[in-house]
Structures are given as structure tokens and as C-alpha cells.
Amino acid sequence: MDSMTLIAVISIFTAGITTGIGTMGPAFSEGRAVATALTSLAQQPDASATITRTLFVGLAMIESTAIYCFVVSMILIFANPFWNHAITLGSGS
Amino acid sequence: MDSMTLIAVISIFTAGITTGIGTMGPAFSEGRAVATALTSLAQQPDASATITRTLFVGLAMIESTAIYCFVVSMILIFANPFWNHAITLGSGS
Amino acid sequence: MDSMTLIAVISIFTAGITTGIGTMGPAFSEGRAVATALTSLAQQPDASATITRTLFVGLAMIESTAIYCFVVSMILIFANPFWNHAITLGSGS
Amino acid sequence: MDSMTLIAVISIFTAGITTGIGTMGPAFSEGRAVATALTSLAQQPDASATITRTLFVGLAMIESTAIYCFVVSMILIFANPFWNHAITLGSGS
Amino acid sequence: MDSMTLIAVISIFTAGITTGIGTMGPAFSEGRAVATALTSLAQQPDASATITRTLFVGLAMIESTAIYCFVVSMILIFANPFWNHAITLGSGS
Amino acid sequence: MDSMTLIAVISIFTAGITTGIGTMGPAFSEGRAVATALTSLAQQPDASATITRTLFVGLAMIESTAIYCFVVSMILIFANPFWNHAITLGSGS
Amino acid sequence: MDSMTLIAVISIFTAGITTGIGTMGPAFSEGRAVATALTSLAQQPDASATITRTLFVGLAMIESTAIYCFVVSMILIFANPFWNHAITLGSGS
Amino acid sequence: MDSMTLIAVISIFTAGITTGIGTMGPAFSEGRAVATALTSLAQQPDASATITRTLFVGLAMIESTAIYCFVVSMILIFANPFWNHAITLGSGS
Amino acid sequence: MDSMTLIAVISIFTAGITTGIGTMGPAFSEGRAVATALTSLAQQPDASATITRTLFVGLAMIESTAIYCFVVSMILIFANPFWNHAITLGSGS
Amino acid sequence: MDSMTLIAVISIFTAGITTGIGTMGPAFSEGRAVATALTSLAQQPDASATITRTLFVGLAMIESTAIYCFVVSMILIFANPFWNHAITLGSGS
Amino acid sequence: MDSMTLIAVISIFTAGITTGIGTMGPAFSEGRAVATALTSLAQQPDASATITRTLFVGLAMIESTAIYCFVVSMILIFANPFWNHAITLGSGS
Amino acid sequence: MDSMTLIAVISIFTAGITTGIGTMGPAFSEGRAVATALTSLAQQPDASATITRTLFVGLAMIESTAIYCFVVSMILIFANPFWNHAITLGSGS
Amino acid sequence: MDSMTLIAVISIFTAGITTGIGTMGPAFSEGRAVATALTSLAQQPDASATITRTLFVGLAMIESTAIYCFVVSMILIFANPFWNHAITLGSGS
Amino acid sequence: MDSMTLIAVISIFTAGITTGIGTMGPAFSEGRAVATALTSLAQQPDASATITRTLFVGLAMIESTAIYCFVVSMILIFANPFWNHAITLGSGS
Asked: Cβ separation of I72 and H48 shorter than 8 Å?
């Protein structure tokens, strides 16, 4: 098994695992935040403006960690410096 | 085992695992959000409009993490740059 | 072990695992949503229309993640591009 | 170990595991839904019609995920395209 | 290790594991359903007819997932198409 | 290691594991059911007839899953078709 | 490593594991049942006859699953058909 | 590594593991039963006779599962039929 | 690696693991029993005699399972029949 | 497999795992903090200024741990001293 | 790798693991007992003498299981009969 | 695989894992501390000065453990004495 | 790999693991004890002397288990009898 | 792979793991202690002096276990006796 194949294989595997595992935390957290927002709305309908605004800021913060994982996956698939280096080596030789 | 086979194998495996594991988090979270929405509706039927709207926004956010995983799986199966590179190499030589 | 066998083996295994693991999350979530719906109905029978409608929308969202997994399994079994490529190679040579 | 044996082995193993693991989620969920239905019936006997109807709809949704797993197992045992392809190859050669 | 032995070995192992693991979910769920039924009976003895009927329907649904696993085990032991194919091959040659 | 030894080894191992793991679920469930029955009896002594009857029906249902596992173990030890086939082959040759 | 040694080894290991793991479930369950019985006795001393009787029936049911495991272990150690077959083969040859 | 050594090794390992793991369940259960007994005594000092008697019967039942494990360990160390068979073979030859 | 070394190695490892794992259960249980005793004493200081006596009986029962593990470890280190047999063989030859 | 390939492979894998696992903790924590903030807002709408300010400070602290992981991943992909050393060695020789 | 090295290695590893794992249980239990003692003291300051005495007796019992593990570790490091036997063999030859 | 490559590989892997795992604890703890601070603020707005000050001291203590991990990672990447020793050896020879 | 290296390697690894794992239990327990002490102080400020004294005694007991682990680590690093024996052998020969 | 490389590798790995795992316990515990302190402050603002002092003593005790792990890591990286011995051997020869 040559070097390029190995780099391709590990990039594919890591990209999938990073997104697959890394989105579990944000998904749970957003579910929790949304669930609590609904409970709070039912308990204090008058504060719906503050609750909704805080919820959206929080969801954006949490979504950011999911995006970190997605970005790492995309970098590994489409902008992988190790893969580019290997291709350069391969085509140059 | 030649390079193309190995890339195909790892792409198939990763695609399945990414979707299989990555949809667990969103599924749990949506179940939690829906469950809390139902509890809130039963507790405060008058706020059903706000609750339903917040629920749908939240479900969309959570579903987005499931879609990240599904997108990575689809990219690995149908638009895999490493596989395309290997086919190009194979047909060119 | 030749390439086609290996691709077949990993496709079979991944298809089973993806569905087997990936349906656990939706199953739990639907059970939770249904359970909460029943509790809410018992607590607030007058809001049964809103509760039932929200429950069905939620179940559809959750079922969608189970269907993602099932779709990936079916793609791997019946519309696997890597397998088709291998067959094309095999029959062409 | 020839190709057909390997495909047979992995099909048998995957079929068993898919059903064995994949029915845990639905089983738990149905137990939860039934348990909550019983609690709700004890709490609000007058709403038994609505509760029972919602319970049956929910059980059907949950059972569907168990059936996905069972269908994948049955496909792997009795309608496995990779196995059929291998038999065709074997008998044709 | 010849092919038939391997198929026999994996069939035996899978049959045991499928039943061993696959009955845990239904067992827990039935225990939960029965436990809740007993609690409900103690809380609302007048609704015992409805509770008992709903309990039996629910137990039947849950038992069905255990039976899926048992059926797969029995198929693998006594009606295994891969094994039959291997015997046919073995006796024919 | 010849075929018969391997089949014997895997049969012994699977028989033990199936019973060892498979009886955990029923044991927990029966403990839960009995515990709830005792709580219910203490709470509503007048309904002891209904509670006891429901308990026994439930225990029978749960015990059935334990018996599935025990049956599979006994089949693997004393009525194993693969072992019988191997003995037939061995004595016939 | 000859066949008899391997069968002996796996029988010893399986016998220990089956009893070691398989008695955990019953032990927990009996602890739970006894604990609930004590709580119920403290709460409703007048129903001690019914509680004690139900407890003993329940303990017998739970103990039965522990006995299944112990029986399988004893069969594997003292009445193992595969071992007997191997001894018969060994002494006959 | 000859047969006797292997049997000795696996007997030692299994004996330790069986006791090490198998006493966890009873230990937890006895702790639970004793803890509940103490709570019940504090709540209903008048029923101390019944509580103590039920506790001792329950502890005896739970201890029995720990003794099953200890018995299997002792059998494997001091009355192991496979080891005795191996010694007989060794001394006879 | 000769037989005596292997037996020594596995005895050392098993002795440590048996005590290391096997004392976790009793330790937790004793902590639970003591904690409940303290709660009970704070709640019902008048029943301190009964509580203390029941606590000590219970601690003795729980400690017995820890002692089972310790005994097995000591037997494996200082009175190991397999080791003695190996030494006898070694010195006799 | 030469040294540069191995360093590339392990860098890719570690970068993905570090981000994938390391963002789970912050994601959960932010979900918890946001959820509690919403509950607090619903309970004490008058303190919304203090609550929001404390929430943002807390989210920044928690996000910092996620950024540690992301920074390590980026260093491993784009500023890896070991990789640079290997390239220097490779181009210099 | 000669016998003495192997025995030394496994003794070192087992000694560390036994203490490392075996002190977790007692540590948790002592934390629990101390925590409950503090709660009880706050709830019933008048019974501080009985509570403190019972706490110390309980801590001594729990500490005993930690000491079992520490003793086994020390025996394995400083009074290991297998190591002594190996040294005797080594120096005598 | 030469020594320098191996040291580089293990340094990369350990640096990532240490940060990835080691920031989970602090992240959870900070989430918990912030969440409790928000609850406390909502419950006792008058003590906001003391609560905020204690929160910040606590967050600093918790953050310190995250920084320990980050420092170890940075030392392993940029100030690794083993790597420096290897480079010195390599350039000197 | 010679004997001294192997002993050094396993000593390093075990020393780290023993401290790394073995301090988790005490850390959790001390956190629990301190947390309960704070709750008790808030609930019963008058008993602060007794609570603080009991807390310190308890912390000392719990810290002792952490110190056991640290002592074992230090012994393995700085006073390892197996390492000393190996050095003596090495320098003597 | 020579001895020095192996010792370096295992030292790097162990140092990272010890800090990475070993700081989880203290981090959780400090989070718990801080959280409880905040709850206590909100509940009993008058006892803030005692609560803060007890909190700081407790945090110092808990931090000590984190420092044990950090110290072991630093010893393994910068004052490793096995590494020094190996260097002495290497430079002396």
C-alpha cells in the first residue's frame, strides 16, 4: 500500500468520524437548550422576547462547535495539505 | 489489495458509520425537544403559537447537524475526491 | 481475497450496522415523544388536537433520521457505485 | 477461504447482529410508551379512547424502525445481491 | 479450516449472540410495562379492565421484537440458505 | 485444529455466553416487576388479587425470554445440527 | 495444541464466565426485591403476610435464572458431550 | 506451551475472574438490602422483628449467588476434572 | 517462555485483578450501608441500638464477599496447586 | 511506509479526533449553561441583565476549551514542527 | 525475553493496576459516608456523638478493602514468592 | 521506521489526545459552575457580588486543570526534550 | 528489546496510569465531601465547628487512598526492586 | 527500535495520558464544589465567610490530586531516572 493511498484512506476515515462523533455533543446541547426554552416559555410567556433572544445566541455558540468539526472534515477532504504535498511529489517525480 | 479497492472499502465503511452514529444525537435531541414541547403545550395551551414556532426553529437547528453527517456520507459515496483521483490515475495509466 | 469480494463484504457489514445502530436513536426518541404525548393528553385532554398535531410533526422529523440510515443501507446494497465500478471493471476485462 | 464463503459468513453475522442490536431500541421505546399509557390511563380514565389511539399510532411508528432492521436481515439472508452475483459467477464459470 | 466449518461456526455464534443480546431489550421493556401496570392498578383499581387490556396488547408488541431475534436464530440454525448451499455443493462434488 | 474441534469449541462458548448474558435482562425485569408488586401491595392491599394475577402473567412473559436463551443454549449443546453433520461426516469417512 | 486441550480450556473459561456474569442480574434483582419488600413492610406492616409470600415467589422466579447459568456451568464441567466425545475418540484410537 | 500448562493457566485466570466479577452483584445487592433495612428500621421501629427476619432471608438468598461463583472457583482450582484427566494422562504415559 | 513462568505470570496477574476489581463492590456497598445508617441515626436517634446492630451484621455479610476475593488471591499466590505441581515436576526431573 | 507518510497519517487522524472529541465537552456545557440561563430568566425576569452578562462570560470561558482543541488541530495540520522537520530533511537530502 | 524479566514486568504492572483501580471503590465510598455524615450532622446536631462513632467504624471497614489492595500490591513488589523462586533458581544455577 | 519518526508520531498523537480528553472535564465543570451561578442569581439577586466573585475564582481554579493539559500538549509539540535529544544525536552524527 | 528496557518501560507506564486513574476516585470523593459540607454549613451554620472537623477527618481518610497510589508510583519510579536487581545484574556482569 | 527510543516513546505517551485523564476527576470535583458553594451562598448569604473559607480549603485539597498527576508527568518528561540511566549508558559506551 503506497503512501498516497494511505493518506487518502486515513483522511476519509477521519473526516467521517470527526463529523459523526463531533456533532453528537452539539445536537444534544441544542436539544437541551430548545427543550428548556420551551419549558421557560410555558412557565413565563411574558418573557418570550428575552428567552428567544438568549436561546438564539446560545444556539449560535453551540452550533459553532459543530461547525469546527465540519470545517475540519471539509479541510481533510478538500484542502488537505498532506494530500496536496503527496500529489505534488507524485506528479513532480 | 490494490489502492482503489482500499479507498472504496474505507469510503463505504465510513459513510455508513458516519450516518449511523451521527444521527443518534439529533434523533435524541429532537425527541427531547418534541417531548418538552408537548409538555409545555399541556401546561400552557395559550402559548401554543410561540411554543410551536420556537420548536420548529429548534428542530431545524438540530436537523442541521444530522444533515452535516448525511452530507459527509453522500460526499464520500458520490463525490469522493480521493476516489476520483484514483480513477483518473487508473484510466490514465 | 480479491477486490470485489472485499467490497461486497464491507458493503454487507456496513449496511447492517448502519441500520442496526442508526435506528436506535430514532426508536428511543419516538418512544419518548409518544410517552410524553400520552402524559400530556392525560394532563390536558382539551388540548388533544394541538398535542396530536405537534406529535405527528415531531415523529416525522425524528423518523427522517431513521430514514437517512435506511437510505444509506439501501444505497450500499442496491446502488453501490464502488460495486458497480468493480463489476464494470470485471466484465470489461 | 474463498470468496463465496466469506460473503456467506459476513452475511450471516451481519444479519444476526442487525436484528439483535436493532430491536433493542424499539423494544425499550415500546416498553416506555406502553408504561406511560398505563400511567396515563390510571390518571385520566376518561381519556382512554384518545390515549389508546395515540398509543397505537406511536407503537406503529416505533415498530417501523424494528422492521427496518428485520427487513435488512431478511434481505441479507434471502435476497442478497452480492451472494447472487457470486453464485452466478460460480455457476457460470 | 474449510468453508463448511467456517459457515457452521459463524452460524452457531451468531445464533447465540442474536438471541442473547436481542432478548435483553424486550425483557427490560416487559418488566417496565408490567411494573407500571402494577403501579397503575394500585393507583386506580377501577380501571383494571382497560389497564390489563392495554398491557396485554403492549406485551404482545414488545414480545414481537424478541420473536424477531428468536426467528433469526432459528433460521440460522435450522434453515440456513448458505449452509444448505454449502451442503449441496459438498454432496454434489 | 480440525473442524469438529472448532465447532465444539464455538458451541461451548456460545452456549455459555447466550445463557450468561441473556438471563440478565429477564432477571432485572423480574426483580423490577416483583419490587413494584410489593410496593403496590403495600399501597393498595385490597387489590392484591388483581396485582398478584397480573404479576404472574407478567413474570411468565418475561421468563419466556430467558427460556428462549436457555433453549438456544441447550440446542447448541445437545441438538446441534452442525455438530451432528460433522459427526456423520466423520463416522462415514 | 491438540483438540482435547482446546475443548477443556474453552469449557473451563466458559463455565467460569457464565456463572460470573450470569449471577449478577439475579443478585441485583434479588437485592432490589428484598429492599422493596423491606420498604413495603415498614410502610404497611399489616400486609406482611401477602408481602412475604409474594417476595418468596418472586425470589424463586429470579433465582431460577441464576440456576440456569449454574446448570450450564455444571453441564460444561461435568457432563460436557463434546468432551465426552473427544475422550471416546481418544481412548478408542 | 504444553496442554497441562494451558489448562492450569486458564483455570487460574477463570477462577480469579469468576470470583472477582461474580461477587460484585451480591455485594451491591446486600449493600442495598442492608441500607433499605436501616431506612425501614428508622421509619418503623415497631416492625423490627419482621424487617430483620426478612432481611436475613433475603441476604441468604443473595449470598447464594456469591457462593455459586465461589464454588465454581474452588472447583476450578481444587477439583478440576480436566486437570485431573490431564494429570492421569501425564502420569500414565 | 516455559510453563512455570507462564503459571507464575498468570497467577500474579489474576491475584491482583481479583482483589482490585473484587473489592470495588463491597467497598461501594459498605459505603452505602454506612451512609444509610448515618441518615437513619439522624432521623431516628432512639433506634440507634437496633440500627447499629443491623449495620454490623450487614457489614459482616458484605465484607464476606470481599474476603472471598482476598482468599482467592492469597490461594493463587501462596497455595497455588498448579504452581506446586509444576515445582514438583521441576524438582523431580 | 516511509516516515513522512506516517507523520502525515498520524497528524490527520489526531487532528480529527482532537476536534471531534474535544468539542463534546464544551458543547454539552454550553447547552447546560444556556438551558439554565433560560430557566433563570423565566424564574426571575428582573435579573435578566446580570444573568445575561454572567452567561456570556461563562460561555466565553467554556468556548476557550473548545478553542484549545481547535488550535491544536490547526497546529497539527498547518504548523506541524515534526512535518516541517521531515520536509526540510527530505528536500535537503 | 527471559522468565525473570517477564515476572518482574507483570508484577510491576499488576501492583500498579491493583492499587490504582482498587482504591477507587473505597475512595468513593468514604466520600459518600463522609458526605452523609455531614448531612446528618446538619440535620441532627444532638446525635453527633453516635454519628461520629458510627462514621469512624464504617470508615475503618471501608478502608480495610483499600488496604487489601495495597497489601496485595506490596506483596507483589516486595514479597513475591514467584520472583523469589526465580531468583533462587537463577543464583543457584 | 526510525527512532525520530516514532518519537514524532507519538508526540503528535499524545498532544492531541491530552488536549482532546483533558478539556472535557474542565468544560463540563465550568458549564456546571456557570449553570449553578445563574440559578443562584435568579434565586438570590441581592448576593450577586459574592456569587460572581466566587464564580470567577472557581472558574480560574477549574481552568487551571485545562491549562495543565494544554501546557503538556505544547511542551510535547514545541519543547519536547526527547525530540531535541534525537535531533542533537541526528545532527551530531 | 532487552530486559532492562522492558522493565523501565512498564515501570513508567504503570506509574503514570496508577496515579492518573487512582486519583480520580479521591478527587470525586473530596469534591462530594466538600460540596456536602458547604450544603450543611448553609443549612445549619451553628454546627460549623463539628462539620468542619468531621470534614477534615474525612478528607484525610480519602486523601490517604490517593496517597497510596502516589506512593506506588514513586516506588515504581525511584525505588523499584526489580529495576535495582536488573542494574545489579547488569553492572556485576 | 532501540531502547532509548522506546523509553522516550512510552514516557511521552504516559505523561500525556496521566495529565489528560488525571485532571478529569479534579476538574469535575472542583466544578461540583464551586457549584455547591454558589447554591449555598444563594441560600444562606450570611454564612458567606465560612462557606468561602471551607470552599478554598476544599479546592486546595482537590487541586492536590491534580498536582500529583502533573508532577508525575513532569517527572516523566524532565527528570526521568530510566531515561537518565539510558543516556548515561549511551554516552559512557
From this structure: no
Q: Alpha-carbon distance A72 to F76, whole Å?
A: 49
- What is the tens place of the pLDDT at every residue in K30-65? 999 999 999 988 888 888 888 888 998 899 889 888
Question: Has residue H93 been placed in a domain?
Answer: no
- Tell me how many domains chain B contains: 1
The C-alpha of G27 sits at a distance from chain F's nearest C-alpha, in angstroms, of: 9
Q: Which residues of N touch M16 (CB under 8 A)?
A: 14-15, 17-18, 72-73, 76
Residues of chain N below pLDDT 50: 93
Q: What is the pLDDT of residues J42-76, one digit of tens each?
A: 888 888 888 888 998 899 889 888 989 999 999 99
Which cell is F38 given?
410489593
In this structure, chain B runs to a length of 93
Q: Give the number of residues written for chain J.
A: 93
CB H19 within 8 A of CB H67: no
Backbone angles phi, psi at A6, to 5 degrees: -65, -40
- Give Cα separations from K25 to A50, I22, K28, M62, M91 (angstroms): 46, 10, 5, 11, 42
Contact G39 F43 (CB under 8 A): no
Q: Rounded to a whole number, what is the distance in Å from the CA of H21 to chain G's nearest CA?
A: 6
Q: Provide CB contacts within 8 A for I82, sequence distance 6+.
A: H8, H11, H12, H83, I7, I11
User: Which residue is it, cell 441518615?
Assistant: I39
CB contact under 8 A, I48 and K50: yes
Average pLDDT, chain J: 87
Q: Evaluate whether residue F69 is within a structural domain.
A: yes
Q: How many CB pairs under 8 A join F and G?
A: 165
Residue E64: DSSP 8-state: H
Residue N26's SS3 state is helix
Of K25, L25, N60, the closest CA to residue M59 belongs to N60
* pLDDT tens digits, C25-36: 899 999 999 999
User: Residue N85 sits in a domain of what CATH number?
Assistant: 1.20.20.10
G-H contacts at Cβ under 8 angstroms: 166
D and N touching (3 or more beta-carbon pairs closer than 8 Å): no
Confidence of residue D86 (pLDDT cuts 50, 70, 90): confident
Q: What cell was used for M11? A: 515501570
Buried b / exposed e across M10-33, counting CB within 10 Å, b at 16+?
Answer: bbbbbbbbbbbbbbbbbbbbbbbb
User: Helix or strand or coil: residue J2?
Assistant: coil
Q: Is J57 exposed, middle or buried (0-12, 13-18, 19+ CB in 10 A)?
A: middle
Residues in chain F: 93
Residues of chain I contacting residue H11, judged by C-beta atoms under 8 Å apart = 82
Whether G77 is in a domain gets the answer yes
At L92, is the pLDDT very low, low, confident or very high (cuts 50, 70, 90)? low
I58's torsion region: left (phi>0), alpha (psi -120 to 50) or beta?
alpha
- D1:C1 CB<8 A: yes
Give the number of C-alpha atoms closer than 13 A to the C-alpha of residue L16, restricted to the C-beta side.
24
Distance, in angstroms, between H91 CA and closest chain G CA? Answer: 16
Dihedrals φ, ψ of H70, to 5°?
A: -65, -40
Range in A81-90, F19-28, G32-41 with the lowest mean pLDDT: A81-90
Cα C80 → chain centroid: 17
Q: What's residue H34's pLDDT?
A: 92
Query: What is the domain range of residue H51?
Result: 3-87
pLDDT at residue C13 tops 90: yes
CA gap G73, G59 in Å, rounded: 21
pLDDT band (50, 70, 90) for residue H83: confident
In a domain, E7, yes or no: yes
M37/K37 touch (CB, cutoff 8 Å), yes or no: no
Task: Report how far residue G25's alpha carbon sits from residue G35's, in angstroms, rounded to the nearest whole number.
Answer: 15
- Report the complex ipTM: 0.81
